[in-house]
Structure formats: structure tokens, C-alpha cells
């Protein structure tokens, strides 16, 4: 091994890498749109060509492994008296990998974000990071001067790539993917605060340990703001009746207290998920901001129009008038969508539950026609 990795050979390899990087720099502007196209391909072809989505995700994870091992490789070369890779070259490679990650995951985030919720802030954060990664002066300034912020930026990219690729590659549920992504991200983010241990003492070790716990707890509390990158609600409807055979809402009524007391209310949702992925979702009912009932439903991925799940609420409070909200959530508390309606004594002011299936979010653009899947008519039934 030592004979193979002589200082002259290592220097020749590094010079060759530097020449390749210099040739790539004029064309680096092509990398973000190529990564975005790769993300779109993985997103839209994950059911028809599942191997393609897995291959793209695996290639991305391999690139991240190289980036994470860059520091170890540099230290290994330095200890043996070999020249280390120049900072400019490694930063440029890191920038390309950051761009690949951000623009690869961006289509997943855009489509699965519930835009009338706090998830909008997370989506804007990802968009801002993607923009930062293509503005060279700002990116290199952060990389050179604000190393702690750079490590946080790096950790967020790790979180994104794990959140998106784990359900595609190994069919982990969104909850399992979220927990694993959070754990690894915290480990990657810890070097940002390593300066606390420059002077090692019991007090500093305790501070470092407490900081780690606070990061983990804060990340878990913020999970409702993180879109489930493998699931999204394609459509929803409110109706007084439901055709179980056709699995379609039916009927129409104004949501007055008398009407919902006599008929109850059906809530229909269609949830899009990759083939082979099984999830538990909930319909969480709220009246004037107060939690009421939670109905659990099991869904399976693969249906083009989304897996149809419905619940039927019949037990309403004595005075049901006011604002109602139904949160469509994953089993671990990530929001898939929300439905609002008003119950009023005045039929003109009350919401009309007309059974019409309305597209949700970006599904209104009929993006699902680009996401073919196998027919799957097995549906989730309510437990309410």
C-alpha cells in the first residue's frame, strides 16, 4: 500500500484532480438544473422505474459519503507526510454535492409541502439554501469565514437527502425516516459546536451533552413543520353520504347543526405514496381550536390517484357551531393537509358539503398524471 501511495503519485493524482476541477468550473452552472432534473425523474418515475429512483438516491448517498470522509482522508494523508487536497478544490466539490442534494430534493419538498401551514417556512428555507449554493461569492464566504454555519448548512443537506431517499430505497415509513434522519443530522451538526470542548472539563462536557439533547428535542418538536417527502394529499372532499362500493363521496348538504346531527359528516382524502410503502395516517378533528377526535387509517402506496381513505364522524357536541378543522397527519405528527369548514345556524354562512372531490395543493396542476402506478383499489376504512 505504501509503495502504491508514494508522495509523488499522490501529488500527481491531486494535480490531475485540480485540472479536472478547473475544466469543470466553466460548466458548473449546469449542475443545479441537472440535479433538479434528477430529482424530478426520481419523484415522477419512482413507481414506474423504481430502480431509477433508487439508483439516483444511492448515487447521491455515495457522493455524501465521499464528502463526509474528506476530513478523515486529509488527516490520514497529513499523518503520513503526504500533501492534502487544497481547500479550494474540496470546497468546490462540496459545493457541487450541496447543489446536487438541494436541487435533487427540492421537487419532493415543493410537491409535498402544505402551503397554508408552517411547512411553507421549511420549504422557503430549502429554497433559500439552494439559492445560496449557486451564489459563489456568498457560498465561499460562508465556507471560509463561518465554519459553524457551514457545518449546520451541511447537516441540513444530510437531513434532506435522508428524508427523501430512505422511503424510496428501503421503504421505511415517514416516521422511521424522520427519526433516523434527525439522529444522523444531529451527529453531523455537532462539529459546529465542537469549540465548546477546546478546553476539556466536566462543565464543558455537560454543556455539550445538554446542547445535544436540546438539539434533538427541538428538532422533534419542529417535525410538524417538516413535510413528509414521500407522501402528499392529492384530493379531499366533505359529504353527508358515501358510496362504499365505488369509494366515492356522495350527496350534498349545508353544514347546519341539525344537518350534521342527523347525517354525520364524511371526510374523504386521497394520499399519494410510493409503491410498497405502508403508512398510518390520522384524521384529527378540532372544534374552535379544541381537539375532539382522532381517527387512524392504514394506507398502502402505489395508486396513481392516491390511496382513498375516509372517516365518518357522527358524535358532534351539543353546540357544534363554529370553525372546524381536520388535520391530516402521519403517525408521527407530520402534516399531510388540512380541511376547514364552518357549521352555522344560517345555511347561507355554513359550509356546503357537496361531495365534490377537489385537488389539494399542487395536485391541482394535475401533476399526478406524470406519476404512473399500478392499479390498487384496496382502500382504508374508517375506525370511527
From TrEMBL:
<feature type="transmembrane region" description="Helical">
    <location>
        <begin position="151"/>
        <end position="172"/>
    </location>
</feature>
<feature type="transmembrane region" description="Helical">
    <location>
        <begin position="178"/>
        <end position="197"/>
    </location>
</feature>
<feature type="transmembrane region" description="Helical">
    <location>
        <begin position="26"/>
        <end position="45"/>
    </location>
</feature>
<protein>
    <submittedName>
        <fullName>DUF2914 domain-containing protein</fullName>
    </submittedName>
</protein>
<keyword id="KW-1133">Transmembrane helix</keyword>
<feature type="transmembrane region" description="Helical">
    <location>
        <begin position="51"/>
        <end position="68"/>
    </location>
</feature>
<feature type="transmembrane region" description="Helical">
    <location>
        <begin position="121"/>
        <end position="139"/>
    </location>
</feature>
<feature type="domain" description="DUF5924">
    <location>
        <begin position="11"/>
        <end position="267"/>
    </location>
</feature>
<keyword id="KW-0812">Transmembrane</keyword>
<feature type="transmembrane region" description="Helical">
    <location>
        <begin position="204"/>
        <end position="226"/>
    </location>
</feature>
<keyword id="KW-0472">Membrane</keyword>
<dbReference type="InterPro" id="IPR022606">
    <property type="entry name" value="DUF2914"/>
</dbReference>
<dbReference type="Pfam" id="PF19346">
    <property type="entry name" value="DUF5924"/>
</dbReference>
<dbReference type="InterPro" id="IPR045968">
    <property type="entry name" value="DUF5924"/>
</dbReference>
<feature type="domain" description="DUF2914">
    <location>
        <begin position="279"/>
        <end position="343"/>
    </location>
</feature>
<dbReference type="Pfam" id="PF11141">
    <property type="entry name" value="DUF2914"/>
</dbReference>
Amino acid at each position: 500500500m505504501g509503495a502504491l501511495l508514494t508522495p509523488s503519485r499522490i501529488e500527481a493524482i491531486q494535480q490531475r484532480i485540480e485540472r479536472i476541477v478547473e475544466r469543470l468550473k466553466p460548466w458548473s452552472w449546469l449542475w443545479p438544473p441537472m440535479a433538479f432534473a434528477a430529482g424530478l425523474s426520481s419523484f415522477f418515475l419512482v413507481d414506474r422505474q423504481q430502480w431509477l429512483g433508487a439508483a439516483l438516491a444511492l448515487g447521491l448517498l455515495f457522493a455524501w459519503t465521499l464528502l463526509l470522509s474528506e476530513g478523515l482522508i486529509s488527516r490520514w494523508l497529513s499523518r503520513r507526510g503526504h500533501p492534502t487536497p487544497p481547500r479550494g478544490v474540496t470546497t468546490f466539490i462540496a459545493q457541487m454535492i450541496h447543489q446536487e442534494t438541494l436541487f435533487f430534493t427540492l421537487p419532493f419538498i415543493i410537491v409535498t409541502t402544505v402551503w397554508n401551514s408552517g411547512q411553507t417556512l421549511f420549504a422557503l428555507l430549502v429554497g433559500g439554501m439552494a439559492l445560496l449554493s449557486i451564489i459563489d461569492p456568498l457560498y465561499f464566504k460562508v465556507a471560509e469565514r463561518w465554519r459553524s454555519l457551514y457545518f449546520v448548512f451541511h447537516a441540513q443537506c444530510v437531513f434532506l437527502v435522508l428524508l427523501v431517499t430512505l422511503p424510496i430505497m428501503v421503504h421505511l415509513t415517514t416516521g422511521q425516516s424522520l427519526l433516523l434522519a434527525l439522529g444522523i443530522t444531529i451527529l453531523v451538526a455537532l462539529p459546529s459546536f465542537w469549540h465548546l470542548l477546546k478546553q476539556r472539563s466536566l462543565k464543558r462536557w455537560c454543556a455539550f451533552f445538554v446542547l445535544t439533547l436540546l438539539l434533538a428535542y427541538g428538532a422533534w418538536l419542529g417535525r410538524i413543520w417538516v413535510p413528509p417527502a414521500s407522501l402528499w394529499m392529492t384530493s379531499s372532499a366533505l359529504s353527508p353520504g358515501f358510496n362504499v362500493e365505488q369509494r366515492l363521496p356522495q350527496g350534498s348538504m349545508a353544514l347546519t347543526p341539525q344537518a350534521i346531527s342527523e347525517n354525520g359528516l364524511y371526510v374523504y382524502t386521497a394520499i399519494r405514496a410510493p409503491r410498497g410503502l405502508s403508512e398510518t395516517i390520522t384524521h384529527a378533528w378540532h372544534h374552535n381550536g379544541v381537539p375532539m377526535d382522532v381517527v387512524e387509517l392504514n394506507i398502502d402506496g402505489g395508486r396513481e390517484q392516491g390511496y382513498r381513505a375516509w372517516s365518518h364522524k357522527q358524535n358532534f357536541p351539543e353546540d357544534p357551531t363554529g370553525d372546524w378543522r381536520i388535520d391530516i397527519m402521519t403517525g408521527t405528527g407530520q402534516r399531510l393537509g388540512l380541511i376547514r369548514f364552518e357549521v352555522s345556524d344560517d345555511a347561507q354562512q355554513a359550509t356546503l358539503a357537496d361531495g365534490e372531490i377537489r385537488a389539494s395543493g399542487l395536485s391541482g396542476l394535475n401533476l399526478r398524471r406524470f406519476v404512473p402506478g399500478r392499479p390498487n383499489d384496496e382502500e382504508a376504512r374508517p375506525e370511527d
